[in-house]
Specification:
Elements: H1 2-11, H2 32-35, H3 47-55, H4 69-89, H5 94-123, H6 151-157, H7 163-170, H8 174-187, H9 193-198, E1 207-208, E2 230-235, E3 251-258, H10 261-270, E4 275-278, H11 284-296, E5 301-304, H12 328-339, E6 343-348, H13 351-354, E7 355-356, H14 361-364, H15 369-379, E8 382-390, E9 398-399, E10 401-409, H16 427-431, H17 456-463, E11 505-506
Amino acid sequence: MTNTVATLAQTQTLADIDNQNPVSDTTNIIDAEYTITSEDIPHELSEAKELVAINDNKFPTIPTDPTALPQFITVAKKRVEAKAKLLNVIQFTPEQYKQAFAQTQKEATSLLIAELNLSEALKAIKTQQGLRSDLKKKEALTTFNKEVKTKKEIIKKVFNLTPRQARDIEKLTKDCVLRAIEFAKDNNIIPTRALALSQLPKREKDETGDITFIPIEETEDKVFSSEEPLYYTSLFANVGIGTYYLHNQNINCAVANELLDERAEWHNYIYPEAKMVQGDITDPEVYNELVELHKQHGCKLVLASPPCQSFSKANNSKGKVSDIRTPLFRTNLEFIRDTNPDYAMIENVPDFLNAKPKQLKELLGDLTIGEYIKQELENMGYVVNIGVYSAADYGTAQDRQRAIILAAKKELGLWKFPKKDKFRKLLFEAIGDLPSLEPGQQDPERPMHYALDLPACQIEFLKHTPTASSAWKNKKEYQPVNVDGSESCAQFKASFSRKDWNKPSNTVLTGSDSLGGMINIHPAVRYLMEHILIADHYLF
């Protein structure tokens, strides 16, 4: 590989090749060579003319502008594919074939490097999780009166790629590309993206435990009340939606920490009295400021929701094994140890409790993360209560399960989970009174109630998708297709599914505006009272 890298470094870099100008217009690049097939090659062509057909045009330069890469890749791919076909159908002398093959291999290498550049550009896009783009419509949030684009919007509007295309490109890494180039050179084959992806290391799966934590609950309904305010510190606070109603019980946010400045700004709007420390909690300066503020404000409660992506079943990425966010629960424990609050609560996805990440083997030993946290908190003098609960257990029409760890100082006694509601709230009870909307419409009385402006192909197959069903169960002619008419290749079995009116909603994910996500489409029209209308189409 060293020789390959050295050769690559001499002739081309990941950002450019030969220091030429980037391609911004393909009208002068595309010619008959790009679309020629074996059937199109005139038999009267001489070997000299055939060789010219392979080498007469100079291969376009990889653009330095990342947004020009998709266009370049499309053009370059057509050229490489055309040349590969010519190599198989034209009769060459050995020297002619060697020359033509070397040229095609070089151009295929440039194509692969361009795809890697695009991969790195897509990975560098900053996500906007936790901040909806429609917030700019709220006059009160004047600081957000600017265009806010999600990563998905940037991929679509700036790079002109579909989510599936972007996912496939982002799988490329520098190491796997270099290995593919070396392998192709050693074996006299054309390097391709598929070859590069085959060079990725096999995914190592983390071990998991099988520990069942038995939570202890209240036997009757209770409401917390306190004449004196109880102040808390919120770690990984996001925008603060999850703690919004605590002030009704005289529980007030005094200190908060959030990594992303957009979320921190929104948190400041919701909690103007709280001191927000925006930044990486693993940064000693940020951490020490949080500890000091916690003590200054007399906080007796710590709420912590470390990132859950590393443990979520919805995350199938190969990088989750080495995700740098995985050990952040340790920072939670350090903060609790350094501040000594009366109470602490740690929340995460259910798989968090039985996770045994390989990179934490030295820390955990044979323990799961849940066991380790329980042991550490007990060593600090806390009584610990652990359970898995859903928001639907407590009056929310969303079946969002979370692992919750409650800790209270021994002298304060066990902190019990509240008694569950007898009945779960249905989705219809939550949003059934909202008016139905056509695609692209917005409710004039409710700014947050609007319908996506969908392409005609999606509107068509959704017309035939009933409540609580997937469009994949429709007749063949009404199953999901892409805008160009090709069959959709959505990766989830639950893609293009309508929710069920008669159940709580499933978890609402950040990317819930993607129809190809996990059961996130409106259940469809339903009328109450004495009238039930079976519509010839369903509104959104």
